[in-house]
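Recap for those who missed Tuesday's class. We walked through two folding examples back to back. For each one, the amino acid string is listed first and its predicted C-alpha cells come directly after. Nothing is annotated here on purpose, so try labeling regions yourself before you check the end of the notes.
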Amino acid sequence: STYGLGTVTTRSRTVKIEARDHSYVDGDRIKVYLNEQVISDNIGLKSNYFVLYVKLKDGYNRIDFQALNQGFSGPNTAEFSVYDENGNLLSDKEWNLNTGQTATLGIIKQ
C-alpha cells in the first residue's frame, strides 16, 4: 500500500532531501526511488539527517520511499524535508510505514 505525501512544485533543477528517524532510533531502513528507478537502495535512518540530492526532469517526478523494515520498534518512522536549490523548504512531512509499504512524494518541475 502507498502513503501519499502530496505534490509540490518548483523551478529548481535539483532538490535536497533530508530524512531521519523521528522516534526511537531502532535500525529503520529505507529504499528510495526516483521515477521508479532505485537511486539509493539501503539508507539507515538515524537521529541526524541523511541527505540525498535528486536531479529533477521537467514535469512530474515521483519519489518513493519504501520501508525495508520496521527496526526494533515498528513501524518505520521518518521525518523528512525537501528543499529547493536555494534552500527554500518545499515539503516537511513524517511517515509511519509497515515493512514493504511506500510513501510517495510528487515534485513538479516547471
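Example two. Treat it independently of the first, because the proteins are unrelated.
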Amino acid sequence: MNAERGKVVDQAQATKKSYRRIATEEAFAIPEQMDAMRGVVAKATEYDPDLFLWNRTLGGGTLYERLLDLESERLRIMDQDGVAMHLLSLTSTGVQMLDADKGTALATLANDRLAEVIRRHPDRFAGMATVAPQDPARAVKEVDRAINRLKLNGVIINSHTNGEYLSERNYWPILEAVAALKVPLYIHPRAPMPAMAAPYRTNHLEHAIWGYQAETGLHGLQLITSGVFDHIPDLKIVLGHMGEAIPYWLYRIDDRFRRSIPRGDRPALKQRPSDYFKQNFMITTSGMNWHPVLQFCMSVLSADNIMWAIDYPYQDSPEAVEFMNTAPISDEDKEKLFHRNAERVFGIKA
C-alpha cells in the first residue's frame, strides 16, 4: 500500500516539475498554401488520399484556424500546458503536390514567414525549412538560403514526391546539402501514393490509422537499403510517431536482409540496417502517447535518440504533456526527451 502511495506521489511531483518542453513536430500553414491546395483539390478528377484530407481541412473549422494561427491561441495553449517552444514546420503535404515553379516560390515564401515569426518570438519558436523536392537543384539552393540566411533549424520533407522517395539518386544532392550544413532532415508522413493506397481504402486505412506509418516507414527503410548512409555518413534523419514502426522490426529487417538472396540492383551495405537506424536516425514521440512503446524504443535506441513532440494541432497538447510528465523513466531521461536532444540536434539555444 505504501509503495502504491509512493508511486502516486512521485507521479504528482513529476507532473508539477518545471521542464523546458520543446515540441518537435508542430504544424502551421500560411494562407497562400491553403489557396494553392484549394486549386489542386478543385482540379482533381480522381480520388487521392492526401486531397481527401485537404478538402476536409479547407472546409474551415478548428483545425483550419489553428494551422493559420501562430501568435494568438497557439501561444495561449502553449502557456497553459507549460510548453516552452514549438519547432514549426509547414503542414503536410507542404508544397510537394504543386508544380515545380509554384512549389519553389511557395516554399520560399513560407520560409520567409517562418523566419519572421521566429524573429518576433525567438524564445517560443524554432523552425524547419520546407523545400520543393520536385526541383532538386532549386531545393538545394533553398536549403542553403533557409539555413545560412534565415537561420532555420532543419529541413522537412513530407515523404514521397510524385510517388518517388529520397532514396532515388536524383534527390541525393538535397541530402548532401542537408548533411553538409549539419542540420537534420525530418521526413514527415503523408498518405501513400494513390497506387499504394488502393488496398488501404476499405474503412479509410490509408490515413493516420495505418497508411501514414506504413508509407513513411517504407521511405525510411528505402533510404537505409539504398546505401545513402555509406555515401553520406553524416546525414541525420528524423522520423515521428516513434519511428514509424521501424524500431519494432529491426531484428527481422537485419535477419531477412542477411538471409536474402543477393540481388544485383540492391547495394551492398557496410553495416546492418539496424546500425544505420541507430546511428543516423532520431525519432520523436508525436502522436504516440503510450508508455509501453516509449519504454521499448528507449531500450532499442536509448534516450539520446528520442525527442518529445505533440503534433499540434492534429493531436492534443495536454495529453502529450501528461504522457511525458508521467512516463516511468528517470528525470534525466525526461530532460533529454523534453529539450536536451532537441537543443543538440536542431541547434536550439539551451
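Answers for example two:
Residues 1-14 have pLDDT under 50 and may be disordered.
The CA atoms of residues 38 and 58 lie 7 Å apart.
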